[in-house]
Amino acid sequence: MIKPKGISAKLIPGFCSNAYQPRLWAFLSTILIIPGCSSSPLGPVSPAFIGPDSGDIKFAQALEKIRLKERLPALASAIVVGGKTRSIAAVGTRLQGTDNWVKKSDRFLIGSCAKAFTATLAGILVDQDLLTWETTIKDVFPRMKMLPDYGGITIGQLLSHRAGFPKNLGEGQSAWAIDYGFDDKRGSLPESLRRQYVEKIVQRPLKYPPGKTVHYSNAGYIVAGAMLERVSGKSFESLRQERLFQPLEITTAAYGTPPIAERMRQPWGHYWDKSKQAFAKLEGKPPKFLAPAGYLSISLEDWIKFVLAHLDVYPVGHQRLVSANTLNTIHSPPPMETWDINIGFDTNYALGWFTNKTNDDHLLIWHGGRGLAFNAVMVADLTSRNAILLVTNADVPHIHPQYHLLQMVKEIQEYYQTVAPLPGIL
């Protein structure tokens, strides 16, 4: 099992009861909203049917053991070994309390893992000479009124969380629950709302001086998305479809959860209802202009196609998505700045990816994502070209869901240890 440098297994026996916990807790809190930490209140769950739609039967059986132990509605995972898909499996139910079993082809919401798609899209436009990593907000919006500190912020700083932006336009709130005060007369198209978002945020003081602090920011990614729209002349949604999804033959990617007409054929997100002491389905409709920062839903098979492109393996044809130099830039963190909190965690942030180095100097790229009570994580080793993708349709109340997923990644590593050394963060 590969362990990143600086992380001792002795420090991580359990998230809620060790000295390492406060630092990792603080680190994850920069990305996500965190529930309380206590002993698990979750009751037992029923075994799921495992059949042809579950995918790799042996892997599905291994996942089912993990799902039952962790008492989750559903769990799905994919394994890449040596740049090739090894296994895909999905177990559990789309809706708690029913036998509406998940399928390996189902779409799960992967939240902020979408940031890697946005950074890659920027890399495609860099290769096409529509911008550079040093292109500034002022370069793209020369006539927009903004505070002086904003003018020199580059898209590279935005995508590496080094621009000094607040997390959201409305600090301390969930991005989908904020009243943004947009002008209805300017229309409701996502690109119009993103433009208004930029106009508003560049009039507010920065949280940190640009280039001095790493501070995770959804706001920075929305501004970056608006910049991509401006230089390309196309909406972010059209651009992502044409330059990413179509070349990779990704057909399942969409914003948010599936529409009502498809809801019984796709997983629901589940939150913990304290009053009923049970999981309940979560219904939500985040505003579409948030797309550059998250809320992407996709099947595991299609998500793998994107991951393989970052492993320098091309699942469709033989054409590169981005040049080798650009791919290296996307994976290479800028000079390390100070994180805004003392995370005590040997990680950095490149363009759309967290990064870690293993003890044998392999570079890991990884990202977690949350949204509408779905949770996802992907960890890939750029040297071995091995990767784990893991998703679930629940927010648990007793442990940070992202840390929970990383613990389950560790269990999958142990299951696969006789086949290949899969990457992990713990």
Structure in words:
With 426 residues, this protein is an alpha+beta fold. The protein is 28% helix and 16% strand. It is built from 12 helices and 14 strands. The strands form 4 sheets. A 7-stranded antiparallel β-sheet has the order 2-1-14-13-12-11-10, with helices on both faces. The protein has a 3-stranded antiparallel β-sheet with strand order 3-8-5. A two-stranded parallel sheet has the order 4-9. The protein is globular and about 60 Å long. The N and C termini lie close together (10 Å). Mean pLDDT is 88; it is low at 1-23 and 32-37.
Brief overview, please?
The chain has 426 residues and is an alpha+beta fold. It has 12 helices and 14 strands.
Layout of SSEs?
Elements: H1 21-29, H2 57-70, E1 74-81, E2 84-92, E3 107-109, H3 114-127, H4 137-140, H5 148-151, H6 155-159, H7 190-201, E4 213-214, H8 218-232, H9 236-245, E5 254-255, E6 269-273, E7 278-282, E8 296-299, H10 300-310, H11 324-331, E9 338-339, E10 348-349, E11 354-357, E12 363-371, E13 374-381, E14 386-392, H12 401-415
Parallel strand pairs: 4-9
Antiparallel strand pairs: 1-2, 1-14, 3-8, 5-8, 6-7, 10-11, 11-12, 12-13, 13-14
